[in-house]
């Protein structure tokens, strides 16, 4: 291996596989956005992006200090590395952050109260489905600033199948003068603002479920996770959001004076090789979900939270 310049390395990134005819699909997406903006004259405050992100309560480390030469290295965990939930984030091109939605697998206690500024919902599998998207449109998108005035809006999201059902399309049409643009499959890491600059620092800032020592807080305190995600979301700078939309060529000035921003270096993606970054696929089946997070019904049988 040394003769060929090879060495054992830890994985640093799971890269998204780009589709064939990459440039053509990017240009087609940008043309659709530009044409809609010219036709509807959308304000930056009415151009939004929504994305769902799967998360786990605990992410065990891959490295630890151990006696040299040991064949087996054990790392203690909280047992919740496969206890997952979903976070739905929405932001506007002017930097406005809408309420995050946190979806837990477990049933919520009756009369449960959660912190203001975050929406908490239960779902049988802890992820978002068609009904979850419809609920998001009613509780988040239709509550954005300017919606009551029925300002023309533009919603950009990926080709996740729950976004493209007839029920969701009808709900979007009923929404206050909203047009939608679907990001081509496999291009979210290039064309989705939340993926390009925002999701990673949002994950990094999430600490609501952890004590100062890094240990997971006691189960049963689902509000800790909701509040932690809300605080991490609110900590994202407005300038980062506006720049992310421009890097994706969604809200740039129509006269072309801001086109250079899309070609600039993405400062938010810098980091050490030991940091892991994961781009989620646009489509994820139930089988793929179980491969990533395990069978929740079995792994969480003794989990008392949420």
Automatic annotation (TrEMBL):
Cellular component terms (Gene Ontology): nucleus
Biased composition range(s): Acidic residues: 259-277
One of the record's GO molecular function terms: DNA binding
Disordered: region residues: 259-281
Sequence ranges assigned to domain DDE-1 in this UniProt record: 83-216
Superkingdom: Eukaryota
Protein name as catalogued: DDE-1 domain-containing protein
Native source species: Oedothorax gibbosus
Upper classification of the organism: Eukaryota, Metazoa, Ecdysozoa, Arthropoda, Chelicerata
């Amino acid at each position: 291996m040394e003769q060929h310049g090879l060495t054992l390395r830890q994985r640093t990134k799971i890269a998204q596989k780009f589709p064939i005819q990459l440039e053509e699909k990017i240009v087609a997406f940008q043309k659709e956005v530009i044409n809609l903006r010219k036709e509807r004259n959308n304000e930056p405050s009415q151009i939004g992006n929504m994305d769902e992100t799967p998360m786990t309560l605990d992410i065990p480390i891959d490295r630890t200090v151990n006696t040299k030469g040991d064949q087996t290295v054990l790392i203690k965990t909280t047992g919740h590395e496969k206890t997952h939930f979903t976070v739905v984030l929405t932001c506007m091109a002017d930097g406005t952050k809408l309420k995050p939605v946190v979806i837990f697998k477990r049933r919520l206690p009756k009369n449960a109260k959660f912190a203001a500024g975050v929406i908490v919902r239960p779902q049988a599998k802890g992820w978002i489905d068609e009904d979850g998207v419809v609920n998001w449109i009613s509780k988040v998108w239709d509550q954005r600033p300017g919606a009551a005035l029925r300002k023309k809006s533009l919603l950009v999201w990926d080709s996740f199948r729950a976004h493209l059902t007839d029920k969701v399309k009808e709900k979007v049409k009923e929404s206050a003068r909203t047009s939608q643009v679907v990001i081509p499959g496999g291009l979210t890491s290039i064309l989705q603002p939340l993926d390009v600059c925002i999701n990673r620092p949002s994950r990094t800032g999430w600490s609501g479920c952890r004590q100062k020592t890094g240990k997971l807080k006691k189960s049963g305190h689902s509000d800790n996770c909701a509040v932690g995600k809300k605080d991490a979301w609110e900590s994202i700078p407005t300038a980062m959001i506006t720049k992310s939309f421009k890097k994706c060529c969604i809200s740039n000035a129509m006269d072309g004076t801001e086109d250079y921003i899309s070609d600039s270096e993405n400062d938010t993606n810098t980091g050490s090789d030991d940091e892991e970054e994961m781009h989620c696929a646009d489509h994820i089946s139930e089988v793929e979900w179980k491969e990533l997070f395990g069978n929740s019904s079995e792994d969480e049988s003794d989990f008392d939270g949420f």
